[in-house]
From TrEMBL:
Pfam families: Lipase_GDSL (PF00657). It comes from the Eukaryota. Belongs to the 'GDSL' lipolytic enzyme family. Residues 1-20 form the signal peptide. InterPro entries: GDSL (IPR001087), SGNH_hydro_sf (IPR036514), SGNH_plant_lipase-like (IPR035669). Keywords: Glycoprotein, Hydrolase, Signal. One of its GO terms (molecular function) is hydrolase activity, acting on ester bonds. This is Esterase. It comes from Rhynchospora breviuscula. PANTHER family: GDSL LIPASE_ACYLHYDROLASE, PUTATIVE (AFU_ORTHOLOGUE AFUA_2G00510)-RELATED, ZINC FINGER FYVE DOMAIN CONTAINING PROTEIN.
Length: 360
């Protein structure tokens, strides 16, 4: 009998750790990396390429206004915790008790006033910055949790981002260099920090804060900002200055997360490292099951990146690869469902979230 007991405990020690936490809901904020349909609740605009086939081809079999061939990180998180896929917050008649998604394509961390003040207001086409998304969330509160929201949100998961990428795009596409754009990093990260503090004030306790992506490795930027100078590229073939801009943001964001964690010891703020995980995928695509890390699955032109800005995914002349799960990049700007699935695992269990979402 003693031998059996010892054997039992020996085997128990080799079992994977069990994770006990559950969430009653997930509330998400961000841009096209997270939007599950807010831009399309009143119909799919014919002018919006992201609202045309073959978007959604892998999982949904139809366009859902997700900027991928299928599910996003927020979808996989919801599935993991046994929650329904997040309804867009703008979808009237929805029940948001188990989650809502305030993210919207084109969103920024800063407000339109900020972009007008620095001369690139014309490059912002969607007025759904983080501050506005939090207002949308506040409008839903009474229907979610009545007058006892702090207790309810204590057991909810909040995902704040990725957001900030479009703030930098406004400057880059407005003609500024990555180095010039970097001067705005402090203000943009401060807007993210302000948003996190507002949510903490509303009762958020478990908060995931994703970094921005290594845009210098994405077909859009590699095509638009091609250089004849080999020194502009790193050993992976990514544009150094664009990745330096993203790294600058992420470094400052990490400091902000650390400061907020110290300021609010009752919270659990998780720094989710999109950047490092995607760099790992670019460096070793085969390890993740990809045949290509820099070529867009859905695009036109073939070649190294399969990206043509005049024939983007969803436009005439573009087409999708037969097996998106073999690609990191879906449309040259956003990632495939297969990539988002792996990223979710890296956030849930580590090593790409600090601390990981799951804890013993």
């Amino acid at each position: 009998m003693k031998t059996l007991v010892l054997l039992f405990f020996f085997l128990l020690s080799y079992l994977p750790p069990s994770y006990s936490q559950k969430y009653n809901a997930i509330y998400s904020f961000g841009d096209s990396v997270s939007d599950t349909g807010n831009l399309c609740v009143n119909g799919k605009p014919s002018s919006l390429t992201l609202a045309q086939p073959p978007y959604g081809m892998t999982f949904f079999g139809k366009v859902t206004c997700r900027c991928s061939d299928g599910r996003l990180v927020v979808d996989f998180l919801a599935e993991y915790f046994g929650l329904p896929l997040l309804s867009p917050s703008k979808a009237s008649g929805s029940d948001f008790k188990k989650g809502a998604n305030m993210a919207i394509i084109g969103a920024t961390a800063q407000t339109s006033d900020f972009f007008n003040s620095i001369g690139v207001g014309s490059k912002i086409w969607n007025n759904g910055p983080l501050d506005t998304q939090i207002q949308w969330f506040q409008q839903l509160q009474s229907s979610i949790c009545g007058s006892n929201c702090k207790a309810y949100f204590k057991n909810s998961l909040f995902v704040v981002g990725e957001i900030g990428g479009n703030d930098y795009n406004a400057n880059l596409f407005g003609g500024r260099t990555p180095e010039q754009t970097s001067t705005y990093v402090p203000q943009i990260v401060q807007a993210v920090s302000n948003g996190i503090e507002k949510l903490i004030g509303l009762g958020a306790v478990d908060i995931v804060v994703p970094t921005v992506l290594p845009i210098g490795c994405f077909p859009l930027y590699l095509s638009l900002y091609q250089s004849s100078n080999a020194g502009d590229y790193d050993s992976l073939g990514c544009l150094k200055s664009f990745n330096n801009l993203a790294s600058n943001h992420n470094s400052r964001l990490r400091s902000v997360v650390n400061s907020l964690q110290s300021k609010y010891p009752g919270t659990r703020i998780m720094y989710a490292d999109f950047y490092s995980q995607v760099i790992s995928m670019v460096r070793s695509p085969g390890s993740y099951g990809f045949v290509s890390s820099m070529q867009a699955c859905c695009g036109a032109g073939g070649g190294k990146y399969n990206y043509d800005n005049t024939k983007r995914c969803g436009m005439a002349g573009a087409s999708a690869c037969s097996n998106p799960s073999k690609y990191l990049s879906w449309d040259g700007i956003h990632l495939t469902e297969a990539a988002y699935r792996q990223i979710t695992n890296g956030w849930l269990k580590g090593p790409y979230a600090s601390p990981p979402i799951l804890h013993n």
